[in-house]
Amino acid sequence: VENLSISFFKDGYENEIIKNISFSINSEEITAIVGESGSGKSISSLALMGLLPKKISKITSGSILFEGKELAHLNNKNFKRIRGNDIAMIFQEPMSSLNPSMSCGKQVEEILKQHTKLSDSEIKAEIIDLFNKVKLPNPKRIFKSYPHEISGGQKQRVMIAMAIACKPKILIADEPTTALDVTVQKDILVLLKEIQKETKMSILFISHDLSLVSELADKVLVMYKGEIVEQGKTETIFNHPKDNYTKALIAARPSTDVRLKRLPTISDFMEDEIDTTTISKQDRTEHHKNLYAQNPLLEIIDVEKTYISKKGLFSKNIPFKAVDGVSFKVYPGETIGLVGESGCGKSTLGNAILQLDKATSGIIKYKGRDITNLKNTALRRLRKDIQIIFQDPFASLNPRLTVGTAIMEPMKVHNIGNSETERKDKVIDILNKVGLESSAFYKYPHEFSGGQRQRIGIARTIAVEPKLIICDESVSALDISVQAQVLNLLNDLKSQFGFTYIFISHDLAVVKYMADQLLVMNKGKFEESGDADDIYTSPKKEYTKKLIHAIPKGL
Fold first, then answer.
1. N or C: more exposed end of the chain, with fewer CB within 10 A?
2. Mean pLDDT in the chain?
């Protein structure tokens, strides 16, 4: 790729998104592009695939040479021969990339039919072989399964099988592990490396997570605002970064060794205002002594949640325990970290505490009072005290309501503020507290970035003045740098308003940074619990060791 520039057009205006970038991908090499959302990573990769949206964008200068052939202005008919065959792509979100109305096997079959002359039986055998190669359990069953019948990690493996079906020379992997558990992420990275060695293809790996990239790539390109600010061998970039932006990306991920008071953000590095204050073991011990001298705010006593699954019309009901007899206490001002892989029961437990999906048995006490079977009015009063920040802020905001209206709505329900004007002033004050401008009050959710939308979700949660907030994977879909800002914000709000958090996540580095106590959950039960730092330093159970081992450490 030489001096490539790409522009987008809107209302007669031309906006240059990619600015004069140059890089090369060598054969049998893994090259990574890192940077935040909006830095131009995905747009650059779409250009390599000839997938730029035709009517609103174009390559304005530069060239893309593949095996000596110019791709920059190749027509769609000729690109179709290359796409999927020589250059293939794994997209970020497998659920929206797979066709929900076709079985997984049929979707891979389509590609092989288009690019090969194999017979139907040969194609089926090839797909089963591919499914084995990407380590899918029971390939014959998954061949017939629809996307909704398999897990997130399995869907991503089907996407990888589809991408490598025609043995491409270059595989583009666009954020292929973003929403996956840390252990599944590790499996996918190991799998990509194995496939790359076996098939001798090159990989262009796109990510916002530098630690992740360090375990995979031979070479790294760092993108910022449409430009490549630094590129070189992975070891050089990690051990001797030159650009401030690269230094910021490396430092923004919470460390598992040092407990900083505040996580450094991109702007801290750009303005050279890095706070290196750490929280010592002594500070932490003193804080915990005061914390646990209080009465608990919340008590969970032997809580179970059982679902009944029906296999067929005349078959027996099969009970499934999503939460299996768990007990713990949460103290005022504490952050409890709840970690585990997808399907371990974390969110089910959160929903039971919120009374969104009532527990099958057990007792939940809030401020010493049993809240397990509260009815309408009492339940509504409780809703004010126990709130949730959701994983996907866009899905939890009404696209037809302005941000101001969305935040004021629950305030009206809970009689907060005596008038519309008072509520509006309070909302604008809260928006400022979460780092948004007053003008956000009049805008709609689609006008904001992912990180800004998460701030709106936090603003709406704190507007009703809760005591306990459940953060359910509330930073998992954010860029590393935006994640640092949101985690700092949650800690600031905690000390300002005296919040108590139950922090649910599959990202152990994040949970360790946030949590006082850690609960490790597996198959509905607690494997291990205790001080977050102690569990990290010396985990007792194999499952916890496996989770910690899977965290990308950086070089």
1. C
2. 89
